[in-house]
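Weekly modeling sync, notes
Attendees: AB, CL, MP (scribe)

Item 1: holo prediction request
CL wants a bound-state model with guanosine-5'-monophosphate before deciding which constructs to order. AB pointed out that an apo prediction alone won't tell us much about the pocket. Agreed to run with the ligand included and paste results into these notes for async review.

Input as submitted:
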Amino acid sequence: MNASDNSDNPTIFGRILRGEIPYKKVYEDADVLAFHDINPVAEVHFLLIPKKFIPTLADATMEDTALLGKMLSLVPRLAKEQGLIGGFRTIINTGKLGGQEVYHLHVHVFGRRPGVDSANTALAPFASSM
Ligand code: 5GP
């Protein structure tokens, strides 16, 4: 799981990975970075990205199997650490017709923390803004 230096990554997430623009970190290791979405659609909304530059899920290859598995395995742990103990939603938008805006693979993780008013309220079937 070699991380790219992202010098060839023209996206806003490439700029984040190069440390060129600020972000609110959720988690980082040698292979991945997670940070809060700048325009959250829920109380908690963060993005998990590989450090390797993979534009879309459709560009991932069998070589990326371990990396993709690691990312999905991390999601429940990070979600729990962010207080999403009652459940959460994950989305990977892929390509133009899949609603992808930033062409560096990312997993959206979002939801809300249990509270007095919302403890038993699930997210809407599908977030209309996504
Ligand atoms: P997509 O539509 O590509 O699946 O989602 C891209 C996400 O990246 C959007 O939810 C958007 O709010 C988020 N985003 C775009 N630019 C930035 C940025 O500069 N910083 C952060 N933290 N999130 C961003």
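Recorded for review: The mean pLDDT is 91.
Action items: CL to compare against the apo run; MP to circulate these notes.
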